[in-house]
Specification:
297 residues, elongated
């Protein structure tokens, strides 16, 4: 029988009743507190634990090769618990404030190959049409996919586009990014042709560029559904999302010699450090090519 822990029980009740935490959060918190108690044998009470004890616990979890995300989740639960003890139970010290956690792991973005992208881009105009779709839906879908890959714009940026934002003379599109920050993105000839073909077929002359079958501005969910539809039809093993077009756009540019500052501007990143993640992807790809190709790799 596990030892009773009235403080933990009261804390979990507080989280459930006052904070209205989800069942999953409560289960994670209960597990984190229980595992810490079980690690500290014999457990003499939370008031006996010091910052050095928690550092030792952290080190033990890392030796067991627990994932950083798992460790951070466990310590987030305990930090919330000790915050509650100091604010609600009048405890003077919170030893967890002195414990430095490992940084979050930066996962590299998933990037499609050029061949995979090209496969996706051909699907809208080659798949069999359904009766539920507007007659111009394949042309619209082709234009959506082409614009995503041609410009690297975000999903919200694409749905906000108006006809007036596309300038066929200068071959650019005006994009309003985060914080309504405006930028001009070059548009490739294939994407421009796709947009023109869709506009002619759907009779779109002003206002919102991309329409739903009810001829209203297409929603974020609507575009997400479009991408999902062609991903399922493609048979690609990687789940394709609008953002993966953005990742692929940036990485393919860097792989072909574009400089980081230009890619930053094209993506609308406020900080260069945000763009730098794509250099890691590009370097990783170079390593893979090297290891596969070099006789003494």
């Amino acid at each position: 029988m596990p030892a009773a822990d009235p403080l933990a029980d009261d804390f979990l009740e507080f989280m459930e009743v006052e904070r209205r935490s989800s069942e999953r959060t409560l289960a994670n918190y209960e597990l984190a507190l229980r595992q810490c108690r079980e690690w500290r044998t014999p457990f003499k009470g939370w008031s006996e634990l010091t910052a050095d004890d928690f550092r030792a616990y952290l080190f033990d979890l890392m030796k067991k090769e627990r994932g950083r995300a798992t460790i951070r989740l466990q310590f987030a639960a305990m930090r919330s618990f000790f915050k509650w003890l100091t604010r609600r139970r009048g405890w003077k010290a919170n030893p967890l404030l002195e414990v430095q956690l490992p940084k979050r792991e930066k996962k590299l973005p998933v990037v499609l190959t050029v061949t995979q992208i090209e496969t996706m881009l051909t699907l809208p105009l080659t798949l069999e049409k359904t009766k539920r779709d507007a007659v111009w839906a394949p042309e619209r879908d082709a234009a959506i996919l082409e614009l995503f890959y041609s410009t690297g714009m975000r999903l919200s940026e694409l749905t906000a586009l108006n006809v007036a934002d596309i300038d066929t003379y200068t071959e650019t599109v005006r994009v309003f990014g985060k914080g309504k920050k405006e930028r001009l993105c070059p548009v490739g000839s294939k994407a421009l042709e796709a947009v023109q073909r869709y506009r002619a077929k759907a009779g779109v002359h002003d206002g919102a560029l991309f329409l739903s079958k009810l001829r209203k501005r297409i929603s974020i969910q609507g575009v997400d559904d479009v991408v999902n539809k062609y991903w399922r039809a493609s048979g690609l093993p990687v789940h394709l999302t609008p953002h993966k077009f953005r990742h692929s756009f940036a990485t393919h540019l860097l792989n072909n010699g574009a400089d980081l500052r230009s890619v930053q501007e094209l993506l609308g990143h406020a900080s260069l450090s945000t763009t730098q993640i794509y250099t890691h992807v590009s370097t990783q790809r170079m390593k893979e090519v090297y290891e596969a190709s070099h006789p003494r790799a």
